[in-house]
Structure formats: structure tokens, C-alpha cells
């Protein structure tokens, strides 16, 4: 029987399937009678000793949790700096774990979360406290190193490709007397994976999206406008997908708004409307734009079955790795075959994941910089396949769950942040 308790927390922007991972963690822990606490609003809740007792949640609600979008326990954008700078925070984490007999810490997030889990494991070792730390992968940006893909990405990729396909039918129908260009902005600060996924909507010279603008390819305004005009002249209309992280040749974001978020990232101000305005003013073409924003990462109704399977698998594997004492690792997805698509889970050291970023390989971007290659298509295609299970009610809406989120009693003095 497992010793102590397991502490699970969610971090950063949520996804359509992060709760599938949470459900898998809880169910796997329950199978071995390991109590699970969850940080309320991520690491912030852990620091404040606001810990949700998942034992108070019914088995039926945990099953339904797997089909609920968002982050059921609350997430946060709160970056812990290096141990020397933020030592008090790290020591507080160890104090909270010790007070509640937490022996396993699972942090479900991206690059920064992997870094935090790694540092907590290092400090626990310094304090001689028996704590096994596991990073659990999650990010719609698909930019985590080592793992073939990131849980959360397959679903946003499916949403993006589907939305581009549907909207393009609309534009094609109206182009003769109305909109000539449709611009859709997608997430992706430094890595163009989501923008690339839009390329799955079509597979021919005249099929949408006609242009994909990646963060990895410097934005040359004249070249982009010339290509848009060529497409409109040839096809009659044009669909453009642009990543929010599109940059000028000097490295500046095209839509930099000023200021930084809690992770120190430059805040972006909307490259979609910026580009649409440029097209209208300089080409004289009627242009519509859309920014799906939260819609693309929360669209559980169109979640990919592959993505759902990945999310469940990393949750189950994280518990297994923790119980096996595999400290400072992350369950990574390893692709073993494209056709048929096959994959497995294997542990990866957090030091190879933390603060590393996986961008689009050059071989995945067409030579003209405006689309994806066949190798990229082979990589992406399996990730959007299938539709994840989702129960609907009589009102026609999905049956999501709201957990009770009852907190355990505090044992330590308050800790102001």
C-alpha cells in the first residue's frame, strides 16, 4: 500500500483535456488507496495551504470530470524563480507537503511547471524529505521538449483545422460580392504548431488555408500582401491563418501590446486584426478576421480521441512513476509508427524538459514559408483523429461537472503572497 498522500496541481493555460489527466490521476491513485489532494488554483493554492480533498468527490463526478473542459481545481500563472531568489516559496511548499504527509507531487503543466517540479525535487532532497516529484505534460502550444506531442494540442489542432475548413466554405460562398480575405489568428507565441494544424484543412495549391504565417518565419509585409493578391486573383478569395507570435525580421512581435504577464512573457495585442487592417488598407480587399482565443483551447465538444487518450495515459503513468520512486521525471509520449499510428509512454528526465522549447522543424514548413510540408502533415494527422466521448443532456448541452472542492483543514500559519 502506498505511503502518505499525493498532491496534484494544474498550471498555466488550461486545455480541453487537462481534466482527463486529472481524472486519470485520481482514479489510478484510488485503485491503490492513495489519497489525493489538489492545489486550489495551482501552486498558489499549495503555497496558501488551500488543498482540495478529492476523497470527497464521487466516483461518478470523477468520471464526468474527464469530459469537462477548463481546470477543475483551478490553475494559475505564477512562476517560481530560481531557488536562491524564491527560496521562501520552495521551503513553504516543502512545509505544506510535510504538514499533510504528502509524499508524491504531480505538477500538470508546461515548461515552467516542469522547472518548478524539478526544483522542488532538488530542495526536498536537500531537506531530506521523502518527496517524489513528477512533471505531467500539458500545453496547447505543443512546445515541450522530448515528448512527441503534448496533451491538449491534438484537440486545439482539430478545432483549428475544422474551423478553418468551415469558415472557408462561408468565405467562398460570399466572395463574389462580399468578403475576399478571411484572417484567423491562433495561439502560439514562439512555436507555430497550432498554426500548422490549420494546414490539415486542405491539401492543394488552391485549398484553404492559402497562407499560414508562422512565428518561425519572419514577417515580410510586401511578400505576404503579394501572395494574398495572387491567391485572390487566382481563386477569388483567400484564407490566412496567423500565429499570435508572428515577428518582424528584427524579432519584434507584429502585435506587441506592451507589458508582460506573470511568466515574464510579452503580452500580445492581436495580430489578426492588425493584419486584416493592413490587407484592407493596402490591397483594398474586404477582409474579415476572427480570434478564437479561449474557444480554441476549451472546445471539449470537438476534442480529439487521440488527444484524450494521451491525456489519460500521462495521468495514469504519472501515478505509476511516482509509486515506483522515479523522481524528477515526466511521462513523455513516444511515437513508434506513423501509419498505423502507434505510441507509448516512457519517462523523461525533467532537466531535459524544463525551460526547453520545441519549435517547428524547418522541414515542416514549406520553402515559401506559407504552408506545411508532407512530413508535417504525417506528423499532425494522427493527432486529430477520432472524437473523444462526451455525454449530452436533454437540453442539448454537454453534461459537464462542477466538483465540490472541499478543502482540508489548515495546519500551518497563513502565508501571504
Return residue spans where pLDDT drops below 50 for at least 5 consecutive residues.
none
The side-by-side strand order for the widest beta sheet comes to 3-2-1-4-5
Find the structural class using helix and strand composition.
alpha/beta
Question: What percent of residues adopt helix (DSSP H or I)?
Answer: 25-40%
Distance between the termini: 36 Å
- The outline comes out as elongated
| Largest β-sheet summary | 5 strands, mixed
Question: How many structural domains in the coordinates?
Answer: 2
The CATH topology of the largest domain comes to: Rossmann fold
Computed over alpha carbons, the radius of gyration is 22 Å
Mean pLDDT reading: 95
How many helices does DSSP assign?
Answer: 12
From the coordinates shown, what is the CATH architecture of the largest domain? 3-Layer(aba) Sandwich
Q: Beta fraction of the residues?
A: 15-25%
Order of helices and strands, N to C?
Answer: EHEHEHHEHEHEHEHEEEHEHHEEH
* CATH level 1 class label of the largest domain: Alpha Beta
Compute the number of strand runs.
13
Explain how this protein is built.
The chain starts with a strand and ends in a 37-residue tail after the last helix. The protein has a 5-stranded mixed sheet, with helices on both faces. A 4-stranded parallel sheet has the order 7-8-6-11, with helices on both faces. The protein contains 12 helices and 13 strands. The mean pLDDT is 95. The longest helix is centred in the middle third of the chain and has 22 residues. The relative contact order is 0.18. With 417 residues, the chain is α/β, with parallel strands linked by helices. 34% of the residues lie in helices and 17% in strands. It has 2 domains: 198 residues, Rossmann fold, CATH 3.40.50; 145 residues, 3-Layer(aba) Sandwich (Rossmann fold). The radius of gyration is 22 Å and the shape is elongated.
